[in-house]
Amino acid sequence: MAAPGKVAAFRLPPLPTIGEIIRLFRLKALKQLSQNFLLDLRLTDKIVKQAGELKNAHVCEVGPGPGGITRSILSAGVEQLLLIEKDARFIPGLQMLSEAAPGKVHIVHGDILTYKMEKAFPKHLKKNWEDEPPNIHIIGNLPFSVSTPLIIKWLENVSKRDGPFIYGRTQMTLTFQKEVGERLTANPGSKQRSRLSVMAQHLCTVENCFVIPGQAFVPKPEVDVAVVHFTPLVQPKIQQPFELVEKVVQSVFQFRRKYCFRGIETLFPENGRLKRTEQLMMTANVDPTLRPFQLSMSQFRNLCNAYRKMCDEDPSLFVFNYREELRQKKMTRSLLESTGQPEQTEEENQP
User: PROSITE patterns this protein is in (predicted)?
Assistant: First the structure.
């Protein structure tokens, strides 16, 4: 019995094990959805612990599947738990959990990539961006096929302070393939440094919490799994629109084994490409012979700021698409070859 004046800690009643739930509802992980079940509740407890204090928190769990992490979240004493599950086969098992925690669980059968999270939580939980993070958490054992597009989408939401971040600096605790987790947290100079490293770290504090061996999952994936925690920064390290930062960073890493000069060239049309690339590198004070993975966050910031200035002077620059230019050139070449006409060189195209 709880002591006078204290609320008793929430405890789930006796329930079938996750393995029994899987057998009861004849659940089978679908390879095409890259599903892997985590049955060990000690590991699900450890994942949930990385989110921090969840007592009386509002939590959204992405892709709960048979409900292993769900149980650990409920046992942490949350106020409300929103479950977003795309696979209808898991809904009956989740409803069993909902009945075991009356009034605490709301189940949505839907796709997290399209689900509108702006109205997922009560308005009174909103915090100013400069304040401490709201008492809202996103937790999920993400299918490998959706993890990268989803974190990019959420990083864009962080940048624009919309989606789940309309409530403030909502924290996220998510699983990724170990290699993706290493990219998310890689420092400059590391061979794992990538577009994902820069996009995540310029907007969030990113912590690689621990690694779960693949053999802990059913079926066993070919890779180990990293648990990564994200806390949005009060001020992004690059104060430019998300689309501009993404374009610059993607371009730099397009030729990750070559000098960064080669990738930055792809920001500009063929006519005047060399001159503009040199101008950008000089303005940003970046050594053109550095490899992409060697660039620091401040160098990426300088590149983005310098590119923004060039786009302000010539708005057509931002809409330029290097791959589209290559496609058009290939089509023109094929057309000329089919008609027997010689292809003009760049010099011949100059007025």
Answer: SAM_RNA_A_N6_MT
